[in-house]
Design goal:
Blueprint lengths: L11 H38 L7 H25 L21 E6 L13 E14 L2 E13 L6 E2 L15 H12 L5 H11 L5 H26 L4 E13 L4 E12 L8 E6 L5 H7 L5 E3 L15 E3 L2 H15 L2 H19 L5 H27 L7 H11 L1 H4 L13 H17 L5 H19 L4 H11 L24
Parallel strand pairs: 1-3, 5-8, 8-9
Antiparallel strand pairs: 2-3, 3-4, 5-6, 6-7
Length: 503
C-alpha cells in the first residue's frame, strides 16, 4: 500500500487508521516472506539432496523441471515482496546468440530530440539488446536498438525507456515464452522434449532455463487468473466437476492421488470462462474455499463433497445426463425394456433443449414449462410405478432409485432458463486435461499443480472464446508488464480482442 501524498492534510483519526492498515500489510508481507522462505528451503533440499537415480529417466526429468520452475517462481515472489533490491547472483556470462539466426531490428528513439533547455539533441551512439524469438519451427533474433541523444549545451543524455518485460533482463521474447507455455500446458510436451525440439530448430535452451521461465510466467499470470475467478463468481449459475491427477511425493518417489477441480460459467451464458483449481484431495472443503461467499445455482453430480454447500444457501442443480447414462448402460448390458422406455423419455427432454438452442432465458423457460415439464411429470410417475415392480438390489432398481432420489435437483432446470439440463459443459472442459495426463504423468508439487491449473485456465478460456491460444497468450505476456492493475480485466479471454494495441 502506497502512502498518500497529502499526509499533512489528514486528521489524527485518518493517520491512525492509515498506520493500522500499513502495519497489517507489513505483518502479512512478513508472514508471506517467511512462508516462501521455508518452502524455498524445502524445495532446494529436494532439488539438490534427494537421490533420484533409481527413478525412471522421464520421471526424474519431470521432477527436476518442476522443482526448477517452483524455485524460480518462489524467488520471483520473494523479490516482489522484499522492499530491498535483489542481490545480484554470480551467474555465468550470457553467451551471445548465434550469428546465423535471422535478425529483426527494432528501433526505440525518444519522442522528442529537443532538450528541455531548447537545444537540439545530438545522437552519440546506441545500446543494443538482443531478444530470442521463436515461431513454430525456427528461431529469430530481435535487436532492440536504443539511440543515445545528448544535449551539447547542458550535457543531458536522453534514451527511450527499456520496454517492460515479463522476465526482466532476460533473452526470451513474449513469443518464445508463449511457445514454451503452449507446448507444456496445451500440447502437453514436457520440457525435456521441448529442449530437443529447440535444439533441432537451431538453438539449445537448457531445461533448467525453460523451467525458470515457466515459474516466472506463472507468477506473472496469476493476477489475471485471480481476476478471471473474481469475475466468474459474479455469475449466478456455475458448473463444477473434478478429475483425479497424480501428485509426486518427493520423499518416496511415488505418486499420491490429487484432484483438479473445474468450474465454469453456465453453458447458456454468453460469457465463456473456465477455472481449474488444483488440490491435494477430493474433500468438499476445496469447493467451499473456492466458492467462498458465492451464492447461486451450482450444476454438479451427486458427489458427496458438494452436499455441504447446499446447506449454506447454494442451490443444487443436477445433471440429467448422469441419470440417463445409468439407463443407457442398463440397456446396453441387459437390453432392459424398462431402460428402453426411460431412454425414450430422456430423448424427448433433450430434443426440447435442442429446439431451444438460441432462445433467450425467458423463452427457454417458457418452452420448458409448456413442453418439458409435462414429460418430466409423466416420467416421474412412471418411475415410481416401475420401482414397485422390480426387486431391490437389481440394476434397474439402482437406476430408478438414483433418479428418484435426485429428482428435485434433476428437474430444477425446468424453472430457470439460465440453468442447463446437464453438466456436460464442464465435462467437456476437463477432457483435454484427462487426455494430457498420459503425457505429463504427474504434478511434481502442489505449487506446480496450481501453476498448471492457472495457466491452463487462461488457455482453455481463450479457446472457449474462439481465440488462438498462442496469439492470446503472446499478446497478454507482451502487455501485462505495463498493464495497470485497474485495467487488468481488459486482458481476460472474453474481453480480449486480437486487434487490441498497447495504450
Amino acid at each position: 500500500m502506497s502512502l498518500p501524498a497529502n499526509l499533512d492534510q489528514l486528521s489524527a483519526q485518518q493517520l491512525r487508521q492509515l498506520l493500522i492498515e500499513k502495519e497489517r500489510e507489513l505483518v502479512w508481507r512478513q508472514t508471506r516472506i517467511d512462508q516462501l522462505t521455508h518452502e524455498l528451503a524445502l524445495h532446494k533440499r529436494w532439488r539438490f539432496g534427494v537421490k533420484t537415480e533409481h527413478w525412471p529417466v522421464e520421471q526424474r526429468q519431470l521432477f527436476e523441471d518442476t522443482l526448477d520452475a517452483d524455485l524460480a517462481a518462489m524467488e520471483t515472489e520473494l523479490a516482489q515482496l522484499s522492499a530491498a533490491p535483489a542481490k545480484p547472483k554470480g551467474q555465468a556470462k550470457r553467451q551471445p546468440l548465434p550469428p546465423q539466426l535471422p535478425r529483426t531490428e527494432i528501433h526505440h528513439e525518444p519522442d522528442s530530440t529537443t532538450c528541455t533547455c531548447g537545444c537540439q539533441l545530438r545522437r552519440i551512439g546506441e545500446d543494443v539488446a538482443e531478444k530470442l524469438d521463436y515461431t513454430p519451427g525456427s528461431f529469430t533474433v530481435e535487436r532492440h536498438i536504443r539511440g543515445k541523444w545528448v544535449c551539447q549545451s547542458c550535457e543531458t543524455l536522453i534514451q527511450a525507456p527499456v520496454p517492460a518485460q515479463v522476465i526482466d533482463k532476460g533473452i526470451p521474447t513474449s513469443g518464445l515464452l508463449t511457445q514454451v507455455l503452449i507446448g507444456k500446458y496445451l500440447d502437453h510436451l514436457p520440457l525435456y522434449r521441448q529442449e530437443r525440439i529447440f535444439e533441432r530448430a537451431g538453438f539449445a535452451i537448457p531445461r533448467a532455463t525453460l523451467a525458470q521461465w515457466v515459474g516466472q510466467c506463472g507468477v506473472a499470470l496469476q493476477p489475471l487468473v485471480e481476476a478471471l475467478k473474481a469475475e466468474m463468481l459474479t455469475h449466478m449459475v456455475l458448473h463444477a466437476d473434478e478429475t483425479p491427477v497424480a501428485l509426486l511425493n518427493p520423499g518416496s518417489g511415488k505418486t499420491d492421488r490429487a484432484y483438479l477441480w473445474s468450474y465454469c460459467i453456465g453453458a447458456h451464458h454468453p460469457v465463456k470462462a473456465v477455472i481449474y483449481d488444483f488440490a491435494e484431495s477430493r474433500a468438499g472443503s476445496h469447493a467451499r474455499d473456492f466458492l467462498g461467499d458465492w451464492r447461486g445455482t451450482l450444476v454438479c453430480d451427486d458427489y458427496a463433497g458438494y452436499k455441504a454447500l447446499f446447506s449454506t444457501g447454494i442451490t443444487e442443480a443436477g445433471c440429467l445426463a448422469h441419470a440417463r447414462r445409468k439407463f443407457f448402460d442398463l440397456h446396453t448390458q441387459n437390453q432392459s425394456l424398462i431402460a428402453a422406455d426411460a431412454l425414450g423419455y430422456f430423448g424427448q427432454l433433450y430434443q426440447i433443449e435442442r429446439d431451444a438452442a438460441g432462445f433467450t432465458p425467458t423463452e427457454r423457460q417458457q418452452l420448458r414449462q409448456s413442453q418439458a415439464k409435462p414429460i418430466a411429470d409423466h416420467l416421474h410417475t412412471w418411475l415410481i410405478q416401475q420401482r414397485q415392480k422390480v426387486p431391490n438390489s437389481t440394476a434397474s432398481a439402482k437406476a430408478i432409485d438414483y433418479t428418484l432420489k435426485r429428482w428435485a435437483a434433476l428437474t430444477r432446470y425446468l424453472s430457470d432458463g439460465q440453468i442447463p439440463i446437464d453438466n456436460n459443459w464442464i465435462e467437456n472442459q476437463i477432457r483435454p486435461i484427462a487426455l494430457g495426463r498420459k503425457n505429463w504423468l504427474f504434478a511434481g508439487s502442489l505449487r506446480a499443480g496450481k501453476r498448471a491449473a492457472g495457466i491452463m485456465s487462461l488457455i482453455q478460456s481463450a479457446k472457449l472464446n474462439c481465440h488462438d491460444p498462442h496469439a492470446y497468450l503472446k499478446d497478454v505476456l507482451t502487455r501485462l508488464p505495463s498493464q495497470p492493475n485497474s485495467r487488468i480485466g481488459e486482458l481476460l479471454p472474453h474481453r480480449w480482442r486480437a486487434d487490441t494495441t498497447l495504450t
